[in-house]
């Protein structure tokens, strides 16, 4: 299993250079910086997900499996032998009996 990475400390903000115009609206600057941090975290999680997919695919290939039921609601599938993913199983609701069928 892949190891969980420790959260990184945020980089210190660069000081404003003399003669440069500071941000005009502090609220927008803060919101944009928050979005940047979330995007960076999402990208790091994407890299971890790719490694986990490759690991799962390798293990499933080792056991000669293309599909593996995890439980009643999820299954693991292999796509192109290098990538695996887990998805929720789509189940159809049982058909209701019509009153005249009873």
Q: Which structural class best describes the helix and strand composition?
A: alpha+beta
N- and C-termini, Cα separation: 53 Å
Shape: elongated
**What Rg do the Cα atoms give?**
24 Å
Fraction of residues in helices?
Answer: 25-40%
Helices, by number, come to 1
Question: What is the overall pLDDT average?
Answer: 80
> Which spans of ≥5 residues are poorly predicted at pLDDT below 50?
none
In the sheet with the most strands, the strands line up as: 1-2-3
Number of beta-strand segments:
3
Query: How much strand content do the residues show?
Result: 5-15%
Q: Give, in order, the helices and strands.
A: HEEE
How does the major sheet shape up?
Answer: 3 strands, antiparallel
Key phrases:
102 residues; alpha+beta; three-stranded antiparallel beta sheet
Q: What do you see in this structure?
A:
The protein is α+β, with helices and mostly antiparallel strands and 102 residues long. The chain has a domain at 29-91. Helices cover 36% and strands 15% of the residues. It is built from one helix and three strands. The protein has one helix spanning 26-62, and strands spanning 67-69, 74-79, 83-88. Strands 1-2-3 form a three-stranded antiparallel beta sheet. A hairpin with a 3-residue loop joins strand 2 and strand 3. The longest helix is centred in the middle third of the chain and has 37 residues, at 26-62. The protein is elongated. The protein starts with 25 loop residues before the first helix and ends in a 14-residue tail after the last strand. The mean pLDDT is 80.
Briefly characterize the structure.
This protein is an alpha+beta fold and 102 residues long. It has one helix spanning 26-62; strands spanning 67-69, 74-79, 83-88. The protein has a domain at 29-91.
